[in-house]
């Protein structure tokens, strides 16, 4: 799986979100359905959250 679009990117209809690599089409479609269910769409721009929220030191 390769993410073609990141949080906050502006997309238009038809632009790819994710490139899925799977063993067969059935597996790819199952992955696609799962991934699309995890996305939310917005008409307004959103800012990406930081990848690292905090560091825990021993």
From TrEMBL:
<dbReference type="GO" id="GO:0016763">
    <property type="term" value="F:pentosyltransferase activity"/>
</dbReference>
<keyword id="KW-0808">Transferase</keyword>
<protein>
    <submittedName>
        <fullName>Uncharacterized protein</fullName>
    </submittedName>
</protein>
<dbReference type="InterPro" id="IPR036566">
    <property type="entry name" value="PYNP-like_C_sf"/>
</dbReference>
<dbReference type="GO" id="GO:0006213">
    <property type="term" value="P:pyrimidine nucleoside metabolic process"/>
</dbReference>
């Amino acid at each position: 799986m390769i993410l073609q679009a990141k949080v906050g990117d502006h997309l238009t209809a038809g632009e790819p979100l994710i490139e899925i690599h799977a063993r067969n089409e059935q597996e790819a479609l199952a992955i696609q359905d799962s991934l699309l269910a995890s996305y939310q769409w917005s008409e307004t721009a959103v800012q990406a959250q930081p990848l690292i929220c905090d560091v825990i030191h021993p």
